[in-house]
Specification:
285 residues; alpha+beta; five-stranded mixed β-sheet; four-stranded antiparallel β-sheet; 4 helices
């Protein structure tokens, strides 16, 4: 690099000119060894111990005018400035932004207070330290990772068997329904999915049926997704959870929750031997 790291002014709300100079210099420094035409996404992982490096600057940078290298346009760069070696959840969170998934955490205006009041441990787009960081089914649906057979749009009373969101099917097998969606407005819905202690959710605090509100017009960082706390009087895993009040949010077998739309009730009727949940959804005025 032609400048020392402290000369670039690295921080979260980074001056565009300095950030652009840093990234241009970094791409130029790597270009002799890297064929950028082979890659759709560029990750720049900085030395966390270099002077002036601010871990809060870890984010996805979108360019109005792309960088150019090896005859290709570089329109996005993931910058990683973590103080500790970045784990898979840091990279998964930033890659989620590459796919246009929103931030699900709440950033206090003064930088103080709790950041995880919207979704707690649920979904890596909320916290990279969550106990159940698998993506919400809503996000997997948006990304095309769930097909029509795995999503049910609920319009009348019915029973649905939900497979755990993080479960991986056996070779040659396919999983059934993963997500149920109840429309609550022109641009809002309540999503219902099962979460179990498997896969990316292996360290979850609570298993069960998770409910969350989705608001299509709410911006990133403003709460486009909010987990519904079906146990508002209790919390869970206060010593490990990023936000204990939502750690025990899922419904368990035998429990019922009435969605505040005035006419929809969700009951967890049973759990099958394979680990799926039978959910009874009752609609009507």
């Amino acid at each position: 690099m032609p400048e020392t790291s402290d000369r670039y002014g690295i921080r979260r709300d980074w001056d565009n000119g300095r950030r652009g100079a840093y990234l241009r210099d970094a791409v130029a420094a790597a270009d002799p060894q890297v064929d950028f035409s082979r890659y759709a996404v560029v990750y720049l992982v900085a030395d966390p111990d270099a002077p002036g490096v601010d871990s809060d600057a870890t984010k996805v940078v979108n360019f109005d005018e792309p960088l150019h290298a090896d005859g290709t346009d570089i329109r996005r760069v993931v910058t990683v400035f973590e103080r500790h070696p970045p784990d898979r959840n840091v990279l998964a969170h930033e890659t989620g932004h590459v796919f246009d998934l929103p931030d699900l955490y709440h950033r206090p205006a003064d930088g103080k207070g709790d950041w995880d009041t919207y979704v707690g441990d649920w979904d890596v787009m909320g916290s990279q330290f969550g106990l159940a960081p698998d993506l919400f089914g809503w996000h997997k649906w948006k990304l095309g990772w769930l097909d029509r057979r795995q999503v049910v749009c609920v319009q009348s009373s019915r029973d649905i068997t939900l497979e755990p969101m993080a479960a991986v099917p056996a070779p040659g097998a396919s999983l059934g329904t993963r997500l149920a969606v109840i429309r609550t407005g022109e641009d809002s819905a309540v999503a219902i999915e099962a979460r179990g202690s498997t896969g990316n959710d292996s360290t979850t605090c609570a298993e069960g049926v998770l409910l969350y509100r989705v608001r299509g017009k709410t911006p990133s960082g403003g709460g486009p997704v909010e987990v519904i706390d079906t146990h508002p009087e209790t919390d869970g895993c206060w010593d490990r959870s990023v936000y204990a009040p939502l750690a025990d949010a899922p419904l368990r077998v035998g429990e019922t929750y009435s969605i505040p739309d005035g006419h929809t009730r969700v009951e967890v009727a049973d759990r099958t031997p394979s680990g799926a949940w039978t959910v009874r959804i009752t609609t009507g005025t």
